[in-house]
Structure formats: structure tokens, C-alpha cells
């Protein structure tokens, strides 16, 4: 019995189908998953019912073959019974002939007995008269021969009649025995054939009852299959509607995310412009300060030369140039919306020339002790995690549609490709030495594949 055929389960399925979108599961995605599981359960039960129906139809076909075989046996038995009945009719005809023969023999026997009785009465009337007495008493000796012949003929006729009467009685007895034998044999055959026919009829009735029950079961299975197919069709429609609603909500979410991303990009661009303006002002101030320092140094050298010229004779002396006084180091600070991946000073600025020559730095370098945790600056999906020539271990996270965060010179990685990471999630740990020369983290940002100043995106 299938679970879905239970009335309570069917009512529950109907209630689930009629529920509004906001009820039941917490989210549309959970509703879709639940509906798909129910649909898979319905299809599984449907497959079981179809297999059960196929088995029933196979059993029904086997029963029909057995019934056909029994019917053929019944036909054979009926033909045999018809043959026996034909034999019975022939035997009855023969018995009737035999009985007619018996009647004729009995009539003949009766006639013979009557004639014999007459002869016996005639002999009794003559009493003890012998042929010799008749010869001695006759007055006509010429008739003596004829009388002797008559008595001899009469004796022979009587003897023949007695023998014939005995034969007739034996024939009657033999014929009666033959009739009885025929009737007994035909009765036995009729009983055997009748019993066989009765057995076959019972088997046929039993198989017919089984076929009727099987037909009822097959009809019930077909009805259940139709019900399951209808439930599956309804649930298919529900899943389709939920998927459409889910896609609609996804589109709305994507539109909101795109708008938020546009606002974030606009804010980042504005922040980048503000940072660029601040950097330009700082650079202008630095250039003015350097120019003022150079002018002051030049005036000091001129004063020194004048004093020296007044105190010493005018001789030519070559002195090494004086170096400019060391300037205080300017801290490198970012003003972006994201936190820094590690806490530490920045030792290499974006765009600055590398010590070893060649290309300029396309990212920034944080000074940090080896083993320091490196954390994601923003949520995103891991695109790559593993070794890369020149960068030791590296992790690349896609933050937005075209924005990538690259964490390089790692000693170890703690994420895998395809993983969704959140802000602050540890992606690896700081490595030691390498191209950097000292322990630290190389951090790079790329927008649409092009390196950009990470200080526009992080604050430290």
C-alpha cells in the first residue's frame, strides 16, 4: 500500500499545494527543495506501482494461459465424453438389438418348449407302448415300417428340439452377460469422464475467480497510478511556480545588489578621488617642503663659502657636497571602506620602484611576523588558492563582479577554490622571506584585470 494513497497523506499534500508563498518553509528555496523531495517521493511510489501493475499483468497473463490450457483440456475431455456418449448410443443400440434377439430367442424358446411339451404329452398318451408292441398289435403288417420310421423321426426331432432349446437358453444367458458387461463398462467410463470434467470445471472456475480478483487489483493499481500522476502534475506546477517566484526574487535581489554595487563603486570612486586629491595635496606640500629645504641648503652653502673666503686665503679647495638633512618618514595610510588584511606598517607603496629594479610595485607590502593570520577584507568567492611562481602561496578572492583581492607571499592557505568567505575569514598566514626579503604580506587589488591602488579600498 503506498503512503500517498492514505487519505491523511493526500490531504497533507493538498494542503501543502494550497499554502500561500509566504507560509510553510522559511524561504522559497526551502519550499522548492521540499516540493522537489515530495515530487521525487511521488515518482518513486509511481515507479513501484507501475512495477506492481506490470507484475499483476504478468500474473494475469499466466492465469489466462493456464485457463486456456484448462479449457483445451476441457475440450479434449468433452470430445472424449462425446465419443463415449457416441459409444454409449451405439452400445445402447447394440443392447437393444441384443435384447430384441433375447426376446426372439425367448419366443423361440417358448415355442420350442411348447412343441416339446406337446411331444411329451403325446408320448405320455402312448404310455408304455413300444415299437415292438405296435408291430405285434398291428393288423396291417405293411404299415409296420412306416410306423418305425415315424417313431425314430419323432425321437430325433425331440432330441434335436431339446438340444436347440438348451442352445437358445445359453445364447440368451450369454447375450444378457454381454449386455451387462457393456452397460458396466460404459457406466465406468461415463463416471470417469464426468469426474474429470467436474474437476476441470472446478479448476476453470477457480482460475476465473483468481483472474477476476487480479483484474480488480489491476484496476485499483491503475486508479492509484492515475492519482499519483495527477499529484505529480500538481506538484510539478507548484515547483514551477515556486521556481519562477524564486527567479523573480533573485532578479530583484540582483537589481538591488547592482544598485548597491553601483552606489558602493560611486562612493569608492568618490573616496578614491578624495584620496587622490589628498595625496596630490600632500605630494605638492612635500615638493614645496623639499624645494624650501633645497633653497635653505643652497643659502647655507653660500654663507659658508663667503665666511670661508673671508677667513682663509683665496686658494682652491675641493670639498664633498653636503647631503640634505634626513626627512621624517611619512606614514602610508589608506582611506577605503574595507579593513586591512593584517595589522602592520606598509613598507612598499603602490607604483613605487622595486629595490631589485624592473617593474614597479603593483600592490603594497605589509610588514608582519611569519605566521600572522591573513584575513579577508570583504566577502567573496575564492577563485584560486595555491602556489604561484614568485609569490609563494597565493589566494585570489572575487569581491565584486570585476574586483579581485590578491593575498600573496603566504606561508599557508586556509581556504579552497569555490568557497564563499566572509569579512574577517582567515584565508592564510604570513610567509617568510622570499622576494620581499623580509617577513610580510604582499596585497594587491585589481579592477577589471588592471592593478589599482589598494589604499583606495582599505583603511589601516
UniProtKB/TrEMBL annotation:
Stretches of the chain forming a coiled coil according to its record: 25-115
Record-annotated M23ase beta-sheet core domain positions: 361-454
Assigned keywords, A-Z: Coiled coil, Signal
Molecular-function annotations in GO: metalloendopeptidase activity
Signal sequence region: 1-25
SUPFAM superfamilies linked: Duplicated hybrid motif (SSF51261)
Protein name as it appears in the record: Peptidase M23
Source organism (scientific name): Acidithiobacillus ferrooxidans (Thiobacillus ferrooxidans)
Taxonomic lineage of the native organism: Bacteria, Pseudomonadati, Pseudomonadota, Acidithiobacillia, Acidithiobacillales
Amino acid at each position: 500500500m503506498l503512503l500517498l494513497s492514505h487519505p491523511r497523506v493526500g490531504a497533507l499534500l493538498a494542503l501543502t499545494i494550497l499554502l500561500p508563498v509566504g507560509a510553510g518553509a522559511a524561504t522559497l528555496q526551502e519550499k522548492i527543495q521540499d516540493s522537489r523531495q515530495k515530487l521525487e517521493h511521488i515518482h518513486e511510489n509511481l515507479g513501484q506501482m507501475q512495477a506492481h501493475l506490470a507484475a499483476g499483468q504478468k500474473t494475469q497473463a499466466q492465469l489466462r494461459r493456464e485457463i486456456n490450457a484448462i479449457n483445451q483440456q476441457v475440450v479434449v475431455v468433452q470430445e472424449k465424453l462425446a465419443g463415449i456418449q457416441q459409444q454409449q448410443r451405439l452400445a445402447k443400440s447394440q443392447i437393444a438389438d441384443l435384447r430384441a434377439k433375447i426376446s426372439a430367442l425367448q419366443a423361440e424358446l417358448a415355442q420350442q418348449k411348447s412343441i416339446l411339451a406337446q411331444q411329451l404329452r403325446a408320448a405320455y398318451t402312448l404310455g408304455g407302448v413300444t415299437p415292438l408292441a405296435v408291430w405285434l398289435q398291428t393288423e396291417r403288417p405293411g404299415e409296420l415300417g412306416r410306423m418305425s420310421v415315424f417313431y425314430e423321426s419323432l425321437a430325433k426331432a425331440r432330441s434335436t428340439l431339446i438340444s436347440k432349446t438348451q442352445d437358445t437358453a445359453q445364447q440368451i444367458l450369454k447375450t444378457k452377460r454381454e449386455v451387462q458387461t457393456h452397460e458396466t463398462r460404459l457406466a465406468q467410463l461415463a463416471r470417469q469422464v464426468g469426474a474429470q470434467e467436474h474437476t476441470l470445471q472446478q479448476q476453470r472456475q477457480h482460475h476465473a475467480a483468481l483472474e477476476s480478483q487480479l483484474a480488480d487489483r489491476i484496476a485499483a493499481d491503475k486508479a492509484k497510478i492515475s492519482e499519483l500522476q495527477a499529484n505529480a502534475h500538481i506538484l510539478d506546477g507548484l515547483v514551477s511556480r515556486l521556481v519562477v517566484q524564486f527567479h523573480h526574487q533573485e532578479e530583484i535581489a540582483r537589481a538591488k545588489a547592482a544598485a548597491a554595487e553601483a552606489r558602493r563603486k560611486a562612493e569608492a570612486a568618490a573616496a578614491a578621488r578624495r584620496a587622490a586629491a589628498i595625496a596630490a595635496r600632500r605630494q605638492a606640500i612635500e615638493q614645496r617642503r623639499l624645494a624650501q629645504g633645497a633653497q635653505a641648503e643652497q643659502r647655507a652653502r653660500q654663507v659658508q663659502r663667503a665666511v670661508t673666503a673671508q677667513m682663509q686665503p683665496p686658494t682652491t679647495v675641493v670639498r664633498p657636497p653636503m647631503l640634505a638633512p634626513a626627512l621624517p618618514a611619512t606614514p602610508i595610510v589608506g582611506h577605503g571602506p574595507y579593513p586591512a588584511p593584517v595589522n602592520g606598517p606598509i613598507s612598499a607603496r603602490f607604483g613605487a620602484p622595486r629595490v631589485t629594479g624592473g617593474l614597479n610595485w603593483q600592490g603594497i607590502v605589509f610588514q608582519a611576523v611569519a605566521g600572522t593570520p591573513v584575513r579577508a577584507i570583504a566577502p567573496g568567492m575564492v577563485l584560486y588558492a595555491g602556489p604561484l611562481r614568485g609569490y609563494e602561496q597565493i589566494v585570489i578572492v572575487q569581491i565584486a563582479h570585476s574586483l579581485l583581492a590578491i593575498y600573496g607571499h603566504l606561508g599557508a592557505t586556509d581556504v579552497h577554490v569555490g568557497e564563499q568567505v566572509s569579512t574577517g575569514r582567515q584565508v592564510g598566514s604570513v610567509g617568510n622571506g622570499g622576494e620581499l626579503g623580509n617577513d610580510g604580506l604582499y596585497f594587491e587589488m585589481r579592477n577589471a584585470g588592471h592593478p589599482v591602488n589598494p589604499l583606495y579600498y582599505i583603511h589601516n
